[in-house]
Amino acid sequence: MVSEDGISHSFDAAPGGYGRGEGIATLLLRPLEDAVRDGDLVRAVIRETALNQDGKTSTITSPSQEAQEELIRACYNRSGLDPRDTTYAEAHGTGTKTGDPIEAGAIGAVLGRSRPENKPLYIGSVKSNVGHLEAASGLASIIKMVLAFEKGCLPPSIHFRSPNPKIQFDRLNLKARYQHIQQDLSRLTVI
């Protein structure tokens, strides 16, 4: 499960396991109307959250693609957002041989396939940049995306070289991030 070189090669052809990292993060969350009323700087708005459990899988560390698909669909249904408007998915992307293909399959099934072929869904993971921060990994992903909004740039997964052959990127209409993308992020939706 742990990468020999200490790096998470998220969605890459050389997934050797996850690279550990260490970090702490803090987010200050407030209801939007309270923050606006009090004149607080609003850096991002979280439209919806969802949580589930994989259920019975072949091993304790194996994710369930079906459970992940159900979770993504439920979150979009409750939020009222159209999955086709999502342009980037900040994924868990640990770089493991089992997890990355399952996660990419779930994201592609729900968000990638319904898009026009010339507008693939970009996916990436902060873990390739800072390692797996365990309990702080989700917060690192949120901070990465808030900074992306502010800078107007989607940062790359720096250790991505070539697509994992176990992930059908074309069929799923996904594209892994290996370079910066400058774009207007005012209408960007991220999962």
Short synopsis of the structure:
The protein is α/β, with parallel strands linked by helices and about 190 residues long.
Mean pLDDT: 88
The name CATH uses for the topology is Peroxisomal Thiolase, Chain A, domain 1
Corresponding CATH superfamily: Thiolase/Chalcone synthase
User: Can you identify the CATH class?
Assistant: Alpha Beta
Based on DSSP secondary structure assignment, what is the total number of beta strands?
Answer: 6
How large, in whole angstroms, is the Cα Rg?
A: 16 Å
Oligomerization state of this entry?
A: single chain
What share of the residues does DSSP label as strand, in percent? 5-15%
Query: What is the count of distinct domains?
Result: 1
Helix-strand makeup class: alpha/beta
For the biggest sheet, the summary is: 4 strands, parallel
CATH architecture group name: 3-Layer(aba) Sandwich
Written as H for each helix and E for each strand, in order along the chain, the element string is: HHEHEHHEHEEE
* Helix content range: 25-40%
Distance separating the two termini:
25 Å
Q: Give the strand line-up of the largest sheet.
A: 4-2-1-6
| Spans where pLDDT lies below 50 across 5 or more residues | none
Shape by Cα distribution: globular
List the helices and strands and how they pair.
Layout: H1 32-37, H2 65-79, E1 86-90, H3 99-112, E2 121-124, H4 127-130, H5 137-151, E3 153-154, H6 169-172, E4 174-176, E5 181-182, E6 189-190
Parallel strand pairs: 1-2, 1-6, 2-4
Antiparallel strand pairs: 3-5
Helix pairs in contact: 2-3
Question: Can you put this structure into words, describing what you see?
Answer:
The chain has helices at 32-37, 65-79, 99-112, 127-130, 137-151, 169-172; strands at 86-90, 121-124, 153-154, 174-176, 181-182, 189-190. It has 6 helices and 6 strands. With 191 residues, the protein is an alpha/beta fold. α3 (99-112) links the parallel β1 (86-90) and β2 (121-124). Helix content is 30%, strand content 9%. The chain is globular and about 50 Å long. It has one domain: Peroxisomal Thiolase, Chain A, domain 1 (3-Layer(aba) Sandwich), CATH 3.40.47.10. The longest helix has 15 residues, at 65-79. α2 (65-79) runs parallel beside α3. A 4-stranded parallel β-sheet has the order 4-2-1-6. The chain has a two-stranded antiparallel ribbon with strand order 3-5.
